[in-house]
Structures are given as structure tokens and as C-alpha cells.
Write a structure and sequence with these properties.
This protein is mainly α. Helices cover about 65% and strands about 10% of the residues. Helix 1 links the parallel strand 1 and strand 2.
């Protein structure tokens, strides 16, 4: 069985963490993806198991490199931007797979 876990709020995030931890320990690879929705930066830091200061430094680093806007971001804006990055990344992975599949089909057809 394959599952996709979405945890809302602090309790939902803990439940998502439990599913992922169980999957790692048992090596079942049954969790396709686990997402925990955070309400603010401190909650996000807890979910990610990093200190808030480290998360702030990483966000600042991404801003300096141009991945995030240089202006101050609300947590909602940061989530929206990160979701956009994730969607683009997943789309790129799917397109890469499609290109490989097309190349494989061309080879089989002798094109």
C-alpha cells in the first residue's frame, strides 16, 4: 500500500512525522510524500527539526542568491513561493522522464 500524508497544524505535522519515521524504520517505502502545513515560522522550524535561527539564515541566503524576493516575506508569501518552486521542480522531473521515454521509443522504432 502506498500513502500520501498531509498534516495540518501542529498535531497533523506530528502525525505526518510519525508516518515518515515508521516508513524509514521499516524500510517499506510506502509513504509517497508527507507534507505538514505550518502556521508560522516557529512551527515550520519544529516540523523541519531545525532551529529558527538556522531557518532564518537559510531564508536570508536564498534571498541573497535571488531565489526569494529581497523584501521581507510573510510566512504565507514564503509558503506560496516555495509551493511554486516545488511545482516547477516536479514538472521538470516529469518532463525529463517523458523525454527519456520518447528517446527510448525512438530507439525501439529505429528513428
Amino acid at each position: 500500500m502506498r500513502i500520501f500524508v498531509i498534516g495540518f497544524g501542529q498535531a497533523g505535522g506530528k502525525i505526518a512525522d510519525l508516518f515518515v519515521e515508521f516508513d524509514r524504520r521499516t524500510r517499506l517505502n510506502s509513504v509517497i510524500r508527507a507534507i505538514a502545513i505550518a502556521e508560522d515560522f516557529s512551527h515550520a522550524a519544529k516540523i523541519l527539526r531545525v532551529k529558527e535561527e538556522k531557518m532564518e539564515k537559510e531564508i536570508a541566503k536564498l534571498s541573497r542568491k535571488g531565489f526569494l524576493p529581497s523584501r521581507s516575506l510573510s510566512f504565507r508569501d514564503l509558503k506560496r513561493i516555495c509551493l511554486g518552486f516545488l511545482m516547477r521542480y516536479e514538472l521538470m522531473l516529469k518532463l525529463d522522464k517523458m523525454e527519456k521515454d520518447i528517446e527510448e521509443i525512438k530507439k525501439k522504432l529505429g528513428l
